[in-house]
Structure formats: structure tokens, C-alpha cells
Amino acid sequence: MSETVALERARDTAFPILLGLSASHLLNDMNQSLLTAIYPTVKESMGLTFAQIGLVTLAYQAVASMLQPLVGLVADKKSHPHSLSIGMLFTLTGLLLLSIATRYEVLIGAAMLVGIGSSIFHPESSRIARMASGGRHGLAQSLFQVGGNVGSSIGPLLAAFIVGARGQGRIAWFALAALLASLLLWKIGDWAAHQHRTGKRKVAITETGLSRRQTRVAMGVLVALIFSKYVYLTSLSSYYTFYLIQTFGVSVRDAQLCLFAFLGAVAVGTVAGGPIGDRFGRKMVIWFSIFGVLPFSLALPYVGLAPTILLTIVIGLVLSSAFSAIIVFGQELMPHRVGTIAGLFFGFGIGGLGAAGLGWLADQTSIGFVYRLCGFMPALGILAAFLPNLKKLDKEAS
Fold it and tell me: Per-residue pLDDT for 6 more than 50?
């Protein structure tokens, strides 16, 4: 791609919209991350087992995983940009319910409401990010996703200093963030609706030249890679604080700060993955980020506190760089199903199943055993060798 074309593409990228989507994603995922961040608090106050904690994650992710592909499919047929703002109100309601939850059933219901909000948010917002990309699809996805990763990392920090210090009821204050996101998304919806009415920014569709069988195989590989990524990240996001508390005797607040450091690394890695994929090809990024993290995941259960914190930061940086590349790779494999692909991968429910299964396994064995077992999950990254090389296609499409 020539320098002149690159400059034209850069000018055509709607950065205010991308930044608005990123900010909304930050607020959305910050609120979602409060759920996992308060697990140590509710486990003690409600007397829950690890399996019950895992079922809370399953309830949240099962709702999201079932609804998000359906929302994406509907969006591919007819876009509903203002649904983003309305969906955020489900998250708002879930947070208010979470702030007063004293029974396990109420906790499950709050998690499901937050999951509904997530299922409405991700597919349509991912479509709008692609619309605003100006052809720089990897960059657009990274900017969009980094907001969510930053929000996910802020959640545990806020939980440590606000919810942990002042009580579960303070979660209600975070409903204001959901309201702010709803207002911002309404304005973004106005912009997207205008683009649809005027026919502007219609995303060009570039066929891959692959056969139907090759496309199915490639999609199967992407699903397997997403499986390994989600299960391993779920093992960290859901049980990392418990691992640090039980293995090294750290306080709940210090464990949440370590979780914040890990999720912050995930945010930084997400920023890098998209632009690198735009420049060098997404297959290379996917291969390196998943399979390349294997030595670190295998070493994690056998080191002390300081190396554990360092290794999780490295794992977060490397492993998170794959997600933007996987999303865009899937959308390029099926260019007529952009929203469906976003809904499928953002709502991939195996993370919730993994959380429930890992929680049960932790009850039967130990958190340390869970991490020794999950350390092998990134080995599935070797399947990236079976992905078609779309590097040339990426360059032509951009």
C-alpha cells in the first residue's frame, strides 16, 4: 500500500467515533469486571464454594454467548445502532441488583442482566467500529477493544478501594457509569444511523477466494484458538486472586491489585495486536500470541510471588494481542457476516463453562492444580499453522 493511499485511509478513519466506542467499551467492561472482582467478598459473605463462583461466571457468559451471535445475525440483516444505548440499561439494572444481592439467586440474576447488556453491546459496536475504520480494520478493532480491556483492569482496582473498603452497596454508584455510557452510545447511534441513511462509509467486501471447505476449516481453527485463549484467561480472571491468597497469603486488596496489573497488561497487548496484524498479517500475530505464551503458562505454577506477578503480566501482554487479529481474520473469512462473527467471538460461552468446570475442579483438588493443568491450554496455538495466509489479502483490502 502506497504512502499516499495510507494517508487517505488515515484521514478517512473516524477517530472521534472510535474513541467514543472505546470509552463506552471501557465503561461497559469496567462494570462487568466488578462481578469477578467482588468474588472474594461474596464468597465469604454468602459462604459460596468455588463451583458456585464458577456458576456465576457461567450464568453471565452463557447469556452473553447465546444472545450475542443472535444479535450479530440480526444486525447483519438490519442495523439497529440505538440498541447499544438501550442495552446499556440492562447493565445498569444488573449493577443496582448486584449492590443489594444477599442471596445467591439474586447474584445469579444480576450476573445474567449484565450478560444481556454485554450481548447487545458488542456485536453492533464492533460493526460500527469497522464502519469507522477507513479500511484500517485491525487498528479500529484494537482501539475499540482496548477500551474494554482498560475497563476490565480498572474494575478490580475500584473494587479494592471502593467496594472492598466501603461495602457491596457502593456498587450502585457504578450505575452512573452505565448511564453515561448509554448517553454516549445514543450519540454514536445517531452517527451510525446517518451513515446508513446516506449510504456513506459502506464497508467494502473483499472475497477471500477460499473454498467453502477451506473457510469452514479456518473458522474451526479460530474457534479452537478462541477456546484456548478464553479458558486460560478465565482461569486467571476468575481465580487469580484466590490463587495468590491461598498460595502466598496476600491480602484481598493486594490480590485485587495484582489482578489489576494483569488486566492492565491485557489492555496494552490489545493495542499492539491490531496494528501489527494490519502491517505484518494476522496469522503471524495469532501464532505468536497464543503458542508463544506456552513457556510462561507452564512455568507459572512453580515460581514464587514476584515471578508469578511478572509472568502473568507477560502472559497478559502476549496472549491478548491475538484477539483483534482473530476477530478481523474471522470477519475477512466471512465478510457478509461481520456482526455475527463479532457476536460469536465476543460471546464465546466456553469461558463460562470453563469457569464452572475449573471451579468444580478447584473444589476437588486445589487452585494450584488448576493452574498446572491450564498451563497447557496455549499449546493449542499450534493449530494456527492450519490457517490460510491472508496477508496478501489484507494488504489488497486495505
Answer: no
